[in-house]
Design brief:
The complex is a heterodimer. Chain A is built from nine helices and five strands, in the order ααβααβαβααβαβα. By secondary structure, chain A is α/β, with parallel strands linked by helices. Chain A has one domain: Thiamin diphosphate (ThDP)-binding fold, Pyr/PP domains (Rossmann fold, 3-Layer(aba) Sandwich). The structure holds thiamine diphosphate and magnesium ion (MG).
Chain lengths: 281, 315
Protein backbone atom coordinates (compact mmCIF):
# COMPACT_ATOMS: atom_id res chain seq x y z
CA UNK A 1 0.00 0.00 0.00
CA UNK A 2 1.34 3.42 -0.77
CA UNK A 3 2.45 5.38 2.25
CA UNK A 4 0.29 8.44 1.59
CA UNK A 5 -2.88 6.34 1.53
CA UNK A 6 -1.82 4.40 4.59
CA UNK A 7 -1.24 7.67 6.41
CA UNK A 8 -4.62 9.04 5.33
CA UNK A 9 -6.48 5.93 6.49
CA UNK A 10 -4.76 5.98 9.87
CA UNK A 11 -5.68 9.64 10.35
CA UNK A 12 -9.30 8.94 9.37
CA UNK A 13 -9.52 6.04 11.81
CA UNK A 14 -8.07 8.19 14.59
CA UNK A 15 -10.75 10.81 13.88
CA UNK A 16 -13.39 8.09 13.77
CA UNK A 17 -12.41 6.91 17.24
CA UNK A 18 -12.82 10.46 18.56
CA UNK A 19 -16.26 10.72 16.97
CA UNK A 20 -17.38 7.33 18.31
CA UNK A 21 -16.26 8.28 21.81
CA UNK A 22 -18.08 11.60 21.57
CA UNK A 23 -21.24 9.83 20.43
CA UNK A 24 -21.30 7.39 23.31
CA UNK A 25 -20.48 10.08 25.85
CA UNK A 26 -23.11 12.49 24.54
CA UNK A 27 -25.74 9.76 24.45
CA UNK A 28 -24.53 8.51 27.85
CA UNK A 29 -24.99 5.01 26.47
CA UNK A 30 -23.83 2.80 23.63
CA UNK A 31 -21.23 0.22 22.74
CA UNK A 32 -17.75 1.67 22.67
CA UNK A 33 -15.51 -1.41 23.07
CA UNK A 34 -16.48 -3.19 19.87
CA UNK A 35 -16.76 0.11 18.00
CA UNK A 36 -13.11 0.86 18.70
CA UNK A 37 -12.04 -2.65 17.69
CA UNK A 38 -13.87 -2.62 14.35
CA UNK A 39 -13.09 1.00 13.41
CA UNK A 40 -10.00 0.30 11.28
CA UNK A 41 -11.81 -2.35 9.23
CA UNK A 42 -14.73 0.01 8.56
CA UNK A 43 -12.41 2.85 7.57
CA UNK A 44 -10.54 0.54 5.19
CA UNK A 45 -13.87 -0.49 3.62
CA UNK A 46 -15.48 2.94 3.26
CA UNK A 47 -12.34 4.93 2.41
CA UNK A 48 -10.45 2.46 0.25
CA UNK A 49 -12.29 -0.68 -0.78
CA UNK A 50 -15.98 -0.04 -1.32
CA UNK A 51 -17.45 1.46 -4.46
CA UNK A 52 -20.01 3.85 -2.97
CA UNK A 53 -21.25 7.38 -3.60
CA UNK A 54 -22.59 9.21 -0.53
CA UNK A 55 -24.54 11.50 -2.87
CA UNK A 56 -26.39 8.47 -4.21
CA UNK A 57 -26.72 6.14 -1.22
CA UNK A 58 -29.39 3.95 -2.85
CA UNK A 59 -27.50 3.37 -6.12
CA UNK A 60 -28.53 -0.18 -7.09
CA UNK A 61 -25.01 -0.91 -8.31
CA UNK A 62 -23.21 0.17 -5.14
CA UNK A 63 -21.21 -2.12 -2.93
CA UNK A 64 -23.08 -2.95 0.26
CA UNK A 65 -22.08 -3.21 3.89
CA UNK A 66 -23.99 -4.91 6.70
CA UNK A 67 -22.98 -4.31 10.30
CA UNK A 68 -24.15 -7.67 11.56
CA UNK A 69 -22.73 -6.81 15.00
CA UNK A 70 -25.20 -3.94 14.97
CA UNK A 71 -24.45 -2.68 18.47
CA UNK A 72 -21.23 -1.14 17.13
CA UNK A 73 -23.24 1.66 15.54
CA UNK A 74 -20.92 4.38 16.89
CA UNK A 75 -18.23 3.07 14.52
CA UNK A 76 -20.60 2.85 11.55
CA UNK A 77 -22.27 6.25 12.04
CA UNK A 78 -18.87 7.89 12.60
CA UNK A 79 -17.53 6.42 9.36
CA UNK A 80 -20.67 7.28 7.40
CA UNK A 81 -20.55 10.86 8.70
CA UNK A 82 -16.86 11.24 7.82
CA UNK A 83 -17.56 9.77 4.38
CA UNK A 84 -20.20 12.45 3.84
CA UNK A 85 -23.50 10.59 4.11
CA UNK A 86 -24.72 13.06 6.74
CA UNK A 87 -23.26 16.02 8.66
CA UNK A 88 -20.69 15.21 11.33
CA UNK A 89 -22.56 17.42 13.84
CA UNK A 90 -25.42 14.91 13.66
CA UNK A 91 -23.48 12.43 15.73
CA UNK A 92 -24.62 14.50 18.73
CA UNK A 93 -28.11 13.17 18.01
CA UNK A 94 -27.06 9.53 18.43
CA UNK A 95 -29.70 7.70 20.49
CA UNK A 96 -31.66 10.90 21.02
CA UNK A 97 -35.46 10.94 20.92
CA UNK A 98 -35.25 14.18 18.90
CA UNK A 99 -33.79 12.44 15.83
CA UNK A 100 -33.54 9.07 14.16
CA UNK A 101 -29.89 8.18 14.76
CA UNK A 102 -31.00 5.04 16.53
CA UNK A 103 -28.96 2.94 18.91
CA UNK A 104 -28.66 0.22 16.28
CA UNK A 105 -28.28 0.81 12.52
CA UNK A 106 -31.51 1.94 10.87
CA UNK A 107 -31.77 1.68 7.09
CA UNK A 108 -35.09 3.54 6.96
CA UNK A 109 -33.82 6.81 8.38
CA UNK A 110 -30.03 6.89 8.27
CA UNK A 111 -28.46 7.50 4.84
CA UNK A 112 -25.79 4.96 3.98
CA UNK A 113 -27.09 2.18 6.20
CA UNK A 114 -27.74 -0.80 3.93
CA UNK A 115 -29.46 -3.03 6.49
CA UNK A 116 -31.16 -2.54 9.85
CA UNK A 117 -29.44 -4.72 12.41
CA UNK A 118 -29.12 -5.12 16.17
CA UNK A 119 -30.31 -8.64 16.77
CA UNK A 120 -27.09 -10.60 16.48
CA UNK A 121 -26.73 -13.25 13.79
CA UNK A 122 -29.31 -11.76 11.44
CA UNK A 123 -27.22 -9.28 9.45
CA UNK A 124 -25.07 -11.93 7.82
CA UNK A 125 -28.18 -13.63 6.41
CA UNK A 126 -29.28 -10.35 4.83
CA UNK A 127 -25.78 -9.96 3.38
CA UNK A 128 -26.15 -13.42 1.82
CA UNK A 129 -29.43 -12.26 0.29
CA UNK A 130 -27.80 -9.15 -1.16
CA UNK A 131 -24.99 -11.22 -2.64
CA UNK A 132 -27.48 -13.73 -4.01
CA UNK A 133 -29.44 -10.91 -5.70
CA UNK A 134 -26.18 -9.67 -7.21
CA UNK A 135 -25.59 -13.10 -8.72
CA UNK A 136 -29.16 -13.39 -10.02
CA UNK A 137 -28.98 -9.92 -11.60
CA UNK A 138 -25.43 -10.49 -12.86
CA UNK A 139 -24.24 -7.31 -11.17
CA UNK A 140 -20.67 -6.75 -10.15
CA UNK A 141 -21.25 -5.09 -6.78
CA UNK A 142 -19.68 -6.68 -3.73
CA UNK A 143 -21.23 -7.26 -0.32
CA UNK A 144 -19.37 -6.83 2.95
CA UNK A 145 -20.41 -7.73 6.47
CA UNK A 146 -18.85 -7.43 9.92
CA UNK A 147 -19.61 -9.87 12.72
CA UNK A 148 -18.51 -10.22 16.32
CA UNK A 149 -16.70 -13.24 17.71
CA UNK A 150 -19.49 -13.57 20.25
CA UNK A 151 -22.11 -13.14 17.54
CA UNK A 152 -20.86 -16.21 15.68
CA UNK A 153 -22.25 -18.30 18.55
CA UNK A 154 -25.66 -17.77 16.95
CA UNK A 155 -26.67 -20.81 14.91
CA UNK A 156 -28.05 -18.50 12.23
CA UNK A 157 -24.51 -17.39 11.35
CA UNK A 158 -23.67 -20.95 10.35
CA UNK A 159 -26.93 -21.38 8.47
CA UNK A 160 -25.94 -18.28 6.49
CA UNK A 161 -22.42 -19.62 6.05
CA UNK A 162 -23.74 -22.86 4.56
CA UNK A 163 -26.04 -20.98 2.17
CA UNK A 164 -23.25 -18.65 1.04
CA UNK A 165 -21.03 -21.61 0.20
CA UNK A 166 -23.84 -23.47 -1.55
CA UNK A 167 -24.45 -20.52 -3.86
CA UNK A 168 -20.71 -19.87 -4.33
CA UNK A 169 -21.11 -16.26 -3.25
CA UNK A 170 -17.63 -15.03 -4.11
CA UNK A 171 -19.14 -11.51 -4.16
CA UNK A 172 -19.54 -11.77 -0.40
CA UNK A 173 -16.79 -10.96 2.09
CA UNK A 174 -17.42 -11.18 5.82
CA UNK A 175 -15.12 -10.03 8.57
CA UNK A 176 -15.16 -11.39 12.09
CA UNK A 177 -13.91 -8.88 14.66
CA UNK A 178 -11.97 -11.33 16.79
CA UNK A 179 -11.47 -9.28 19.95
CA UNK A 180 -11.85 -12.25 22.29
CA UNK A 181 -14.59 -10.65 24.38
CA UNK A 182 -18.37 -10.54 24.57
CA UNK A 183 -20.61 -9.18 27.37
CA UNK A 184 -20.26 -11.74 30.12
CA UNK A 185 -16.50 -12.08 29.67
CA UNK A 186 -13.99 -13.81 27.44
CA UNK A 187 -15.46 -15.58 24.44
CA UNK A 188 -13.27 -18.54 25.36
CA UNK A 189 -15.09 -18.80 28.71
CA UNK A 190 -18.66 -17.83 27.80
CA UNK A 191 -18.97 -20.00 24.69
CA UNK A 192 -15.76 -20.90 22.88
CA UNK A 193 -16.23 -20.09 19.21
CA UNK A 194 -12.66 -20.91 18.12
CA UNK A 195 -11.14 -22.40 16.02
CA UNK A 196 -12.91 -20.07 13.61
CA UNK A 197 -10.52 -20.73 10.72
CA UNK A 198 -11.24 -24.46 10.75
CA UNK A 199 -14.97 -23.89 11.19
CA UNK A 200 -15.27 -21.51 8.25
CA UNK A 201 -13.06 -23.74 6.11
CA UNK A 202 -15.26 -26.70 6.92
CA UNK A 203 -18.25 -24.60 5.86
CA UNK A 204 -16.66 -24.03 2.47
CA UNK A 205 -15.31 -20.52 2.93
CA UNK A 206 -12.02 -18.99 1.87
CA UNK A 207 -10.39 -17.88 5.14
CA UNK A 208 -7.87 -15.06 5.52
CA UNK A 209 -6.42 -14.28 8.94
CA UNK A 210 -5.47 -10.62 9.33
CA UNK A 211 -4.36 -8.05 11.90
CA UNK A 212 -7.51 -5.95 12.14
CA UNK A 213 -5.54 -2.83 13.01
CA UNK A 214 -3.10 -3.03 10.09
CA UNK A 215 -4.33 -1.18 6.99
CA UNK A 216 -1.80 -2.77 4.65
CA UNK A 217 -2.94 -6.22 5.73
CA UNK A 218 -6.62 -5.27 5.52
CA UNK A 219 -6.18 -3.87 2.01
CA UNK A 220 -4.34 -6.97 0.83
CA UNK A 221 -6.94 -9.26 2.40
CA UNK A 222 -9.91 -7.46 0.81
CA UNK A 223 -8.11 -7.59 -2.57
CA UNK A 224 -7.44 -11.31 -2.13
CA UNK A 225 -11.11 -11.82 -1.25
CA UNK A 226 -12.21 -10.07 -4.45
CA UNK A 227 -9.81 -12.21 -6.47
CA UNK A 228 -10.98 -15.48 -4.94
CA UNK A 229 -13.57 -17.17 -7.16
CA UNK A 230 -16.20 -19.79 -6.41
CA UNK A 231 -16.57 -19.29 -2.64
CA UNK A 232 -17.24 -16.56 -0.08
CA UNK A 233 -14.33 -15.17 1.91
CA UNK A 234 -14.08 -14.40 5.59
CA UNK A 235 -11.42 -12.19 7.14
CA UNK A 236 -10.63 -13.28 10.68
CA UNK A 237 -9.45 -9.96 12.06
CA UNK A 238 -7.45 -10.15 15.27
CA UNK A 239 -8.31 -6.98 17.18
CA UNK A 240 -8.22 -5.34 20.57
CA UNK A 241 -11.58 -4.46 22.11
CA UNK A 242 -11.45 -0.82 23.22
CA UNK A 243 -8.49 -0.19 20.90
CA UNK A 244 -6.81 3.18 21.46
CA UNK A 245 -7.98 3.90 25.01
CA UNK A 246 -5.61 2.40 27.56
CA UNK A 247 -8.16 1.74 30.28
CA UNK A 248 -10.76 0.31 27.89
CA UNK A 249 -8.52 -2.11 26.03
CA UNK A 250 -9.26 -5.81 26.56
CA UNK A 251 -11.84 -5.12 29.27
CA UNK A 252 -15.29 -6.70 28.79
CA UNK A 253 -16.62 -4.10 31.23
CA UNK A 254 -16.39 -1.52 28.43
CA UNK A 255 -18.61 -3.48 26.07
CA UNK A 256 -21.70 -1.37 26.47
CA UNK A 257 -20.92 1.31 28.99
CA UNK A 258 -20.51 5.05 28.48
CA UNK A 259 -17.57 6.81 30.13
CA UNK A 260 -18.31 9.38 32.83
CA UNK A 261 -17.02 12.93 32.29
CA UNK A 262 -13.64 12.25 33.85
CA UNK A 263 -13.11 9.01 31.94
CA UNK A 264 -14.28 10.76 28.79
CA UNK A 265 -11.68 13.51 29.11
CA UNK A 266 -8.99 10.94 29.70
CA UNK A 267 -10.09 8.84 26.72
CA UNK A 268 -10.37 11.88 24.45
CA UNK A 269 -6.89 13.05 25.47
CA UNK A 270 -5.45 9.68 24.52
CA UNK A 271 -7.35 9.61 21.23
CA UNK A 272 -6.34 13.21 20.41
CA UNK A 273 -2.70 12.31 21.06
CA UNK A 274 -3.06 9.35 18.74
CA UNK A 275 -4.53 11.58 16.03
CA UNK A 276 -1.71 14.10 16.43
CA UNK A 277 0.83 11.27 16.21
CA UNK A 278 -0.74 9.97 13.00
CA UNK A 279 -0.99 13.45 11.50
CA UNK A 280 2.64 14.11 12.38
CA UNK A 281 3.87 11.01 10.61
CA UNK B 1 -43.29 6.39 48.39
CA UNK B 2 -41.78 2.96 48.19
CA UNK B 3 -38.20 2.28 47.28
CA UNK B 4 -37.32 2.24 43.57
CA UNK B 5 -35.99 -1.14 42.42
CA UNK B 6 -36.00 -2.74 38.97
CA UNK B 7 -37.97 -5.97 38.78
CA UNK B 8 -34.94 -7.58 37.12
CA UNK B 9 -32.90 -6.82 40.25
CA UNK B 10 -35.58 -8.43 42.39
CA UNK B 11 -35.59 -11.42 40.05
CA UNK B 12 -31.85 -11.90 40.45
CA UNK B 13 -32.16 -11.86 44.24
CA UNK B 14 -35.22 -14.09 44.34
CA UNK B 15 -33.53 -16.67 42.15
CA UNK B 16 -30.57 -16.96 44.51
CA UNK B 17 -32.85 -17.26 47.53
CA UNK B 18 -34.91 -19.89 45.74
CA UNK B 19 -31.84 -21.90 44.76
CA UNK B 20 -30.79 -22.09 48.38
CA UNK B 21 -34.02 -23.91 49.20
CA UNK B 22 -34.42 -25.97 46.04
CA UNK B 23 -31.41 -27.85 44.69
CA UNK B 24 -33.24 -28.67 41.44
CA UNK B 25 -33.35 -25.03 40.38
CA UNK B 26 -30.84 -24.27 37.61
CA UNK B 27 -30.34 -21.11 35.57
CA UNK B 28 -29.33 -20.48 31.99
CA UNK B 29 -28.46 -17.24 30.27
CA UNK B 30 -27.33 -16.12 26.82
CA UNK B 31 -24.46 -13.68 27.46
CA UNK B 32 -26.70 -11.17 29.22
CA UNK B 33 -26.37 -12.29 32.83
CA UNK B 34 -25.37 -8.82 34.01
CA UNK B 35 -28.48 -7.33 32.39
CA UNK B 36 -30.99 -10.02 33.33
CA UNK B 37 -29.37 -10.16 36.78
CA UNK B 38 -28.87 -13.91 36.72
CA UNK B 39 -25.22 -13.05 37.38
CA UNK B 40 -25.63 -13.28 41.14
CA UNK B 41 -26.94 -16.82 40.71
CA UNK B 42 -23.97 -17.65 38.45
CA UNK B 43 -21.58 -16.47 41.13
CA UNK B 44 -23.38 -18.15 44.02
CA UNK B 45 -24.14 -21.44 42.26
CA UNK B 46 -21.60 -21.76 39.43
CA UNK B 47 -22.30 -25.50 39.10
CA UNK B 48 -25.99 -24.88 38.48
CA UNK B 49 -25.53 -22.02 36.03
CA UNK B 50 -25.06 -22.47 32.29
CA UNK B 51 -24.00 -19.58 30.09
CA UNK B 52 -25.09 -20.74 26.67
CA UNK B 53 -23.51 -17.84 24.82
CA UNK B 54 -25.30 -15.75 22.22
CA UNK B 55 -27.51 -18.65 21.14
CA UNK B 56 -31.01 -18.22 22.53
CA UNK B 57 -32.74 -20.90 20.48
CA UNK B 58 -30.30 -23.53 21.66
CA UNK B 59 -30.66 -22.27 25.23
CA UNK B 60 -34.43 -22.90 25.20
CA UNK B 61 -33.93 -26.38 23.80
CA UNK B 62 -31.29 -27.18 26.42
CA UNK B 63 -33.62 -25.88 29.14
CA UNK B 64 -36.29 -28.24 27.84
CA UNK B 65 -33.88 -31.17 28.06
CA UNK B 66 -32.87 -30.24 31.59
CA UNK B 67 -36.54 -30.14 32.56
CA UNK B 68 -37.12 -33.67 31.22
CA UNK B 69 -34.53 -34.80 33.79
CA UNK B 70 -36.27 -33.16 36.72
CA UNK B 71 -34.36 -29.88 36.79
CA UNK B 72 -36.24 -26.61 37.21
CA UNK B 73 -34.61 -24.33 34.64
CA UNK B 74 -34.97 -20.55 34.59
CA UNK B 75 -33.70 -19.47 31.17
CA UNK B 76 -33.17 -15.73 30.82
CA UNK B 77 -32.26 -13.27 28.08
CA UNK B 78 -33.87 -10.10 26.72
CA UNK B 79 -37.62 -10.42 26.10
CA UNK B 80 -36.98 -9.81 22.41
CA UNK B 81 -34.83 -12.92 22.13
CA UNK B 82 -36.64 -15.14 24.66
CA UNK B 83 -40.13 -14.71 23.24
CA UNK B 84 -39.10 -13.51 19.80
CA UNK B 85 -36.05 -15.24 18.45
CA UNK B 86 -36.60 -18.50 20.31
CA UNK B 87 -40.39 -18.47 19.86
CA UNK B 88 -40.66 -21.72 18.05
CA UNK B 89 -38.27 -23.56 20.37
CA UNK B 90 -40.39 -22.33 23.28
CA UNK B 91 -43.57 -23.46 21.56
CA UNK B 92 -42.49 -26.88 20.36
CA UNK B 93 -39.83 -27.96 22.86
CA UNK B 94 -41.21 -26.36 26.04
CA UNK B 95 -44.92 -25.60 25.85
CA UNK B 96 -46.09 -28.51 23.71
CA UNK B 97 -44.47 -31.19 25.92
CA UNK B 98 -45.63 -29.14 28.95
CA UNK B 99 -42.11 -28.96 30.38
CA UNK B 100 -41.30 -27.15 33.57
CA UNK B 101 -39.21 -24.35 32.08
CA UNK B 102 -39.45 -20.73 33.14
CA UNK B 103 -38.73 -18.59 30.12
CA UNK B 104 -37.53 -15.24 31.46
CA UNK B 105 -37.55 -12.16 29.25
CA UNK B 106 -35.86 -9.09 30.64
CA UNK B 107 -35.99 -5.53 29.27
CA UNK B 108 -39.55 -5.93 28.04
CA UNK B 109 -41.30 -3.01 26.37
CA UNK B 110 -40.21 0.48 25.35
CA UNK B 111 -38.43 1.29 28.60
CA UNK B 112 -35.34 -0.36 27.12
CA UNK B 113 -34.77 3.22 25.95
CA UNK B 114 -31.58 4.02 24.05
CA UNK B 115 -30.99 0.63 22.39
CA UNK B 116 -34.05 1.31 20.27
CA UNK B 117 -36.58 -0.65 18.26
CA UNK B 118 -34.59 -3.84 17.71
CA UNK B 119 -34.46 -4.36 21.47
CA UNK B 120 -37.83 -2.88 22.52
CA UNK B 121 -40.03 -5.94 22.59
CA UNK B 122 -43.71 -4.97 22.62
CA UNK B 123 -44.89 -8.30 21.28
CA UNK B 124 -43.84 -10.80 23.95
CA UNK B 125 -47.18 -10.99 25.79
CA UNK B 126 -48.90 -11.72 22.50
CA UNK B 127 -46.33 -14.25 21.33
CA UNK B 128 -46.37 -16.15 24.60
CA UNK B 129 -50.10 -15.85 25.23
CA UNK B 130 -51.12 -17.51 21.99
CA UNK B 131 -49.16 -20.65 22.82
CA UNK B 132 -51.24 -23.34 24.55
CA UNK B 133 -50.02 -24.41 28.01
CA UNK B 134 -48.07 -21.19 28.57
CA UNK B 135 -48.58 -19.13 31.69
CA UNK B 136 -47.70 -15.46 31.14
CA UNK B 137 -46.72 -13.24 34.05
CA UNK B 138 -45.32 -9.73 34.43
CA UNK B 139 -45.01 -8.40 37.97
CA UNK B 140 -45.14 -4.65 38.58
CA UNK B 141 -42.59 -4.19 41.34
CA UNK B 142 -39.83 -5.84 43.34
CA UNK B 143 -42.15 -7.18 46.03
CA UNK B 144 -44.47 -8.77 43.50
CA UNK B 145 -41.54 -10.14 41.48
CA UNK B 146 -40.16 -12.02 44.48
CA UNK B 147 -43.55 -13.51 45.20
CA UNK B 148 -43.95 -14.42 41.52
CA UNK B 149 -40.59 -16.18 41.29
CA UNK B 150 -41.46 -18.29 44.31
CA UNK B 151 -44.91 -19.08 43.00
CA UNK B 152 -43.49 -20.00 39.59
CA UNK B 153 -41.01 -22.34 41.23
CA UNK B 154 -43.96 -24.15 42.85
CA UNK B 155 -45.88 -24.16 39.57
CA UNK B 156 -45.00 -27.27 37.55
CA UNK B 157 -45.31 -26.18 33.92
CA UNK B 158 -44.11 -23.84 31.20
CA UNK B 159 -44.28 -20.13 31.96
CA UNK B 160 -43.09 -16.80 30.59
CA UNK B 161 -41.95 -14.14 33.04
CA UNK B 162 -41.27 -10.58 31.87
CA UNK B 163 -38.78 -8.41 33.76
CA UNK B 164 -38.33 -4.66 33.42
CA UNK B 165 -35.19 -2.63 32.94
CA UNK B 166 -36.06 0.52 34.88
CA UNK B 167 -36.08 1.00 38.62
CA UNK B 168 -39.73 1.34 39.62
CA UNK B 169 -41.47 2.30 42.81
CA UNK B 170 -42.51 -0.58 45.04
CA UNK B 171 -46.24 -0.20 45.60
CA UNK B 172 -47.72 -3.58 46.39
CA UNK B 173 -46.13 -3.91 49.83
CA UNK B 174 -48.13 -0.94 51.10
CA UNK B 175 -51.54 -2.13 49.88
CA UNK B 176 -53.65 -3.51 52.75
CA UNK B 177 -54.80 -7.04 52.07
CA UNK B 178 -52.54 -7.51 49.05
CA UNK B 179 -51.64 -11.09 48.39
CA UNK B 180 -50.08 -12.73 45.35
CA UNK B 181 -51.45 -15.73 43.55
CA UNK B 182 -50.66 -16.77 39.98
CA UNK B 183 -53.73 -16.36 37.81
CA UNK B 184 -55.43 -14.00 40.27
CA UNK B 185 -55.41 -10.25 39.70
CA UNK B 186 -55.05 -7.92 42.66
CA UNK B 187 -57.31 -4.93 43.28
CA UNK B 188 -54.87 -2.22 44.34
CA UNK B 189 -57.46 0.53 44.60
CA UNK B 190 -61.23 0.28 44.96
CA UNK B 191 -63.45 2.33 42.66
CA UNK B 192 -66.92 2.34 41.16
CA UNK B 193 -66.86 4.49 37.99
CA UNK B 194 -64.31 2.75 35.79
CA UNK B 195 -61.76 -0.07 36.09
CA UNK B 196 -58.17 0.31 34.95
CA UNK B 197 -56.64 -3.12 34.33
CA UNK B 198 -52.86 -2.77 34.29
CA UNK B 199 -49.74 -4.88 34.08
CA UNK B 200 -46.04 -4.40 34.75
CA UNK B 201 -44.72 -0.87 35.02
CA UNK B 202 -48.11 0.50 33.91
CA UNK B 203 -49.57 -0.50 37.29
CA UNK B 204 -47.79 2.40 38.99
CA UNK B 205 -48.96 4.74 36.25
CA UNK B 206 -52.51 3.43 36.57
CA UNK B 207 -52.45 4.28 40.27
CA UNK B 208 -51.26 7.80 39.41
CA UNK B 209 -53.97 8.09 36.78
CA UNK B 210 -56.55 7.09 39.39
CA UNK B 211 -55.28 9.92 41.61
CA UNK B 212 -55.70 12.39 38.74
CA UNK B 213 -59.20 11.10 38.09
CA UNK B 214 -60.14 11.29 41.76
CA UNK B 215 -59.50 15.03 41.57
CA UNK B 216 -62.19 15.24 38.89
CA UNK B 217 -64.67 13.14 40.79
CA UNK B 218 -64.07 9.95 38.80
CA UNK B 219 -63.62 6.97 41.08
CA UNK B 220 -61.32 4.51 39.30
CA UNK B 221 -60.67 0.96 40.41
CA UNK B 222 -57.15 -0.27 39.66
CA UNK B 223 -56.46 -3.94 39.02
CA UNK B 224 -52.92 -5.27 38.85
CA UNK B 225 -53.25 -8.12 36.34
CA UNK B 226 -49.78 -9.60 36.80
CA UNK B 227 -50.87 -12.88 35.23
CA UNK B 228 -52.11 -12.25 31.70
CA UNK B 229 -52.69 -15.95 31.17
CA UNK B 230 -54.57 -17.64 32.64
CA UNK B 231 -56.64 -14.49 32.99
CA UNK B 232 -58.60 -13.82 36.18
CA UNK B 233 -61.95 -13.70 34.42
CA UNK B 234 -63.99 -13.72 37.62
CA UNK B 235 -62.34 -10.57 38.92
CA UNK B 236 -62.69 -8.90 35.53
CA UNK B 237 -66.36 -9.70 35.08
CA UNK B 238 -67.10 -8.49 38.56
CA UNK B 239 -65.26 -5.24 37.87
CA UNK B 240 -67.06 -4.77 34.55
CA UNK B 241 -70.44 -5.31 36.23
CA UNK B 242 -69.69 -2.97 39.10
CA UNK B 243 -67.97 -0.14 37.21
CA UNK B 244 -69.47 -0.48 33.73
CA UNK B 245 -66.34 0.56 31.81
CA UNK B 246 -62.83 -0.78 31.49
CA UNK B 247 -59.48 0.61 30.41
CA UNK B 248 -56.49 -1.67 29.91
CA UNK B 249 -52.91 -0.42 30.03
CA UNK B 250 -49.72 -2.22 29.13
CA UNK B 251 -46.19 -1.53 27.90
CA UNK B 252 -46.95 -3.64 24.84
CA UNK B 253 -48.64 -3.42 21.49
CA UNK B 254 -52.39 -2.90 21.98
CA UNK B 255 -52.65 -5.83 19.59
CA UNK B 256 -52.15 -9.23 21.14
CA UNK B 257 -51.55 -8.42 24.79
CA UNK B 258 -53.51 -7.71 27.97
CA UNK B 259 -55.99 -5.43 26.21
CA UNK B 260 -57.15 -8.03 23.77
CA UNK B 261 -57.23 -10.69 26.46
CA UNK B 262 -59.50 -8.52 28.59
CA UNK B 263 -61.64 -7.44 25.65
CA UNK B 264 -62.02 -11.05 24.56
CA UNK B 265 -63.16 -12.13 27.98
CA UNK B 266 -65.61 -9.28 28.50
CA UNK B 267 -67.06 -9.39 25.00
CA UNK B 268 -68.32 -12.87 25.79
CA UNK B 269 -69.17 -12.57 29.46
CA UNK B 270 -70.08 -8.96 30.23
CA UNK B 271 -69.92 -6.53 27.30
CA UNK B 272 -68.98 -3.05 28.50
CA UNK B 273 -66.77 -0.43 26.81
CA UNK B 274 -63.15 -1.65 26.85
CA UNK B 275 -60.57 0.93 25.79
CA UNK B 276 -57.04 -0.27 25.24
CA UNK B 277 -54.04 1.84 26.17
CA UNK B 278 -50.53 0.84 25.16
CA UNK B 279 -48.23 0.99 22.17
CA UNK B 280 -50.34 1.78 19.10
CA UNK B 281 -49.08 -0.92 16.72
CA UNK B 282 -45.78 0.77 16.03
CA UNK B 283 -42.09 0.08 16.56
CA UNK B 284 -40.21 1.89 19.28
CA UNK B 285 -37.28 4.25 18.86
CA UNK B 286 -34.13 5.28 20.65
CA UNK B 287 -34.13 7.82 23.44
CA UNK B 288 -33.89 8.07 27.20
CA UNK B 289 -36.50 5.70 28.60
CA UNK B 290 -38.75 8.34 30.23
CA UNK B 291 -38.74 10.37 27.01
CA UNK B 292 -39.52 7.33 24.91
CA UNK B 293 -42.43 6.44 27.19
CA UNK B 294 -43.73 10.00 26.95
CA UNK B 295 -43.29 10.01 23.17
CA UNK B 296 -45.55 6.99 22.87
CA UNK B 297 -48.07 8.26 25.39
CA UNK B 298 -47.29 5.77 28.11
CA UNK B 299 -48.11 8.25 30.85
CA UNK B 300 -50.62 8.52 33.71
CA UNK B 301 -52.20 11.46 31.88
CA UNK B 302 -52.88 9.36 28.80
CA UNK B 303 -54.37 6.57 30.90
CA UNK B 304 -56.61 9.10 32.67
CA UNK B 305 -57.73 10.42 29.27
CA UNK B 306 -58.71 6.91 28.19
CA UNK B 307 -60.60 6.47 31.45
CA UNK B 308 -62.55 9.70 30.87
CA UNK B 309 -63.48 8.43 27.40
CA UNK B 310 -64.48 5.06 28.81
CA UNK B 311 -66.72 6.74 31.36
CA UNK B 312 -68.27 8.87 28.60
CA UNK B 313 -68.96 5.70 26.60
CA UNK B 314 -71.21 4.42 29.38
CA UNK B 315 -73.76 7.18 28.79
C1 LIG C 1 -29.71 -12.09 19.29
C2 LIG C 1 -29.04 -11.21 20.27
N1 LIG C 1 -28.76 -11.69 21.49
C3 LIG C 1 -28.19 -10.90 22.41
C4 LIG C 1 -27.89 -9.59 22.13
C5 LIG C 1 -27.29 -8.70 23.18
N2 LIG C 1 -25.88 -8.42 22.89
C6 LIG C 1 -25.48 -7.27 22.30
S1 LIG C 1 -23.85 -7.21 22.02
C7 LIG C 1 -23.60 -8.75 22.70
C8 LIG C 1 -22.23 -9.32 22.76
C9 LIG C 1 -21.59 -9.35 21.41
O1 LIG C 1 -20.29 -9.81 21.45
P1 LIG C 1 -19.41 -9.78 20.13
O2 LIG C 1 -20.20 -10.34 19.02
O3 LIG C 1 -18.11 -10.41 20.41
O4 LIG C 1 -19.29 -8.22 19.84
P2 LIG C 1 -18.05 -7.22 20.13
O5 LIG C 1 -17.10 -7.87 21.07
O6 LIG C 1 -17.43 -6.98 18.80
O7 LIG C 1 -18.67 -5.97 20.67
C10 LIG C 1 -24.83 -9.27 23.14
C11 LIG C 1 -24.99 -10.57 23.80
C12 LIG C 1 -28.22 -9.12 20.84
N3 LIG C 1 -28.00 -7.86 20.46
N4 LIG C 1 -28.78 -9.95 19.93
MG1 LIG D 1 -16.18 -9.79 20.64
Amino acid sequence: MDQAKLHQLAVTAAKGRLLAMEMVHTAASGHIGGSLSVMDALVELYFDVMRVDPANPKDPNRDRFVLSKGHCTPALYAVLAMRGYFPEEDIKLFRSITAHYSGHPDMVYVPGVDMSTGSLGQGISAAVGMALAGKVDKKDYRVYAALGDGEVEEGQVWEAAMAAAKYKLDNLCALVDVNGLQIDGKTADVMPSEPLDEKFKAFGWNVIPVDGHDFAQLEAAYAAAAAHKGAPTVLLAKTVKGKGVSFMENDAGWHGKAPNDEQYEKAMAELRDALAREEGK
Amino acid sequence: MGEKIATRAAYGEALVELAARDSQVVALDADLSSATMSKKFSQTYPDRFFNMGIAECNMMGVAAGLATCGKKPFASTFAMFAAGRAFEQVRNSIAYPRLNVKVVGSHGGLSVGEDGATHQCCEDFGLMRVVPNMLVCCPCDANEMKLAVNALAEYDGPAYLRLGRLAVETVTDAIPGYRFELGKGAVLRPGKDVTIVSVGMMVQMALQAAELLAGEGIDARVIDMHTIKPLDEELLIQAARETGAVVTTEEHNIIGGLGEAVAGCLAAACPVPVLRHGVEDTFGRSGKAPLVLEHYGLTPQAIAEKARKAVACKK
